[in-house]
Amino acid sequence: MNKDNSSMQMDPQLALRLLADGGVLAIAGVPEGTEFGIDLCAYTIGPDFRGVKMIPPGVHYVWCSSRGPYGDAAPRVGFVHFFHPNEIVVREWDHELEELRPRRIAEPEVERDRIRKNLAQLERVLAPYDYRYVVPWKELTGSVTEPCVQRCRPAEGTIRTNIELQSCPDAERPRGGAGTSSITRRNAAARLLLDESELLPNLKPVEGTAPRFSNVPQRVPHDALPADVSRHAMDCIEAVDKVIKGFDSADGLIEELQLAYVFFLVGYSVESLAHWRKLLGVLAHSESAVTKHKLTYMKYSEVLSHQLPHLPEELMVPSPHNTVYKDVRELLVNLHAGGLSVSAERLTKRLEKKLGWQFDGLLDEDPEDQPVVIELPEP
After folding, report:
1. Strand 58-65 vs strand 77-83: parallel, antiparallel, or unpaired?
2. pLDDT at residue 193, as a whole number
3. Across-strand partners of 63?
4. pLDDT tens digits, one per residue of 94-125
5. From CA 34, how far away is CA 46, in angstroms rounded?
């Protein structure tokens, strides 16, 4: 995120063109001292701040974080919007929820027309979009389209750090059927002993509050036969095919990967990070998928080269306990084996330069990849 508070220098002619073609975000009623951000830039709201002008067309993430009486900051709450040239978006402060919401007036279009006619007078209270961060933001979101934004954002529009949860009704709780076998009952009892999370309340997201991402299948299907477990674990081509078939085109997968990552990077959305991690965990573990979907994996490696340098510090340390590092290492192995060595080398060099990640012995056979022998009971 932006920590640079220095002033932005811009060519006057470029500024006039951006002022004429860029979008405008107008906000009303936000208290002084509130933290405000758009994309990779973060600010503290002052007495004369009423929004942002010269916003380039494309997807943008806007957030606010209210301040307590002792200076403590609340979790970020924001929204994502795909701006069109000259578009004006108006938001107002909800004092009860302490977040931005759509303007609640009888004639919003009349207000937008009035803002458009008086932009010259409003210039002093509208901060210019910081164009020093246009290129990094485009690298992170360049593939995202408006349909992807509409499909993935929560139905209510607001994105929170953690989604709201509610208890499932009693009728929706899982129950064992009347014909449940003794073996199934014993397995259920064993799960309770091994995993205490089974004892936690069964919760589900409050309707309309969670990002609407695609479903990510397990690498090893729950109903896989014992003889197929090793095959799925070593190469989850079937899971990758299911992921890609869930979109109208393979580009839809790349768009969702980029959008989920910025939901986490800018909005600190825990669910979005979990979704991004699940996709990495599936896509990284299939040499066959690299061979079959070469163009998709070329784009994916390019996307990762821009995303991974923005990881939080705890995920930047290359260690056996860092699952992101382990999955990326496995992806590089499969890129080499699947015929995309150029993409693998490009990603390797960027990660070595930006994160200091080393991949010594990358193409040496990993003992963990050896086949697993499963003894089947005699008939």
Report:
1. antiparallel
2. 45
3. 37, 78
4. 999 999 999 888 888 899 999 888 888 888 89
5. 8
Q: How far apart are CA 38 and CA 80, in angstroms?
A: 10
pLDDT at 183: 45
Q: What is the pLDDT of residues 284-338, one digit of tens each?
A: 999 999 999 999 999 999 999 999 999 888 778 877 788 899 999 999 999 999 9
Do residues 88 and 24 touch, judged by C-beta distance below 8 A? yes
Distances (CA, A) of 85 to 141, 153, 199: 17, 21, 52
Report d(CA 93, CA 324) in Å as an integer. 38
Q: How far, in Å, CA of 235 to CA of 284, rounded?
A: 9
**Tens-digit pLDDT profile for residues 172-188:** 654 444 444 444 444 44
What pLDDT does 362 receive?
Answer: 79
Closest CA to 285 of 217, 213, 226, 352: 217
**CA max distance for the chain:** 85
* Cα(272)–Cα(348) distance, integer angstroms: 25
Distance of CA 340 to the CA centre of its chain: 25
Nearest to 265 by CA among 126, 80, 32: 80
Q: Strand 159-160 and strand 127-128: pairing?
A: unpaired
Which two structure tokens, joined as six digits, stand for 153?
């954002």
**Token digits for 259?**
């959008």
Residue 201: the pLDDT is 64
d(CA 195, CA 307): 33
Tokens 């996709």 belong to residue: 279
Per the document, the length of the chain is 379
Which residue matches tokens 């309340």? 201
The secondary structure element, H or E, covering residue 88 is strand 88-94
Nearest to 260 by CA among 37, 100, 61, 120: 61
In this predicted structure, the answer to whether residue 43 has a pLDDT above a threshold of 90 is no
Please, which pLDDT band fits residue 195 given cuts at 50, 70 and 90?
very low
- Torsion (CA) 223, 227, 228, 230 in degrees, nearest 10: 120
pLDDT at residue 178, as a whole number: 47
- Backbone φ, ψ for residue 202 (5° rounding): -85, 105
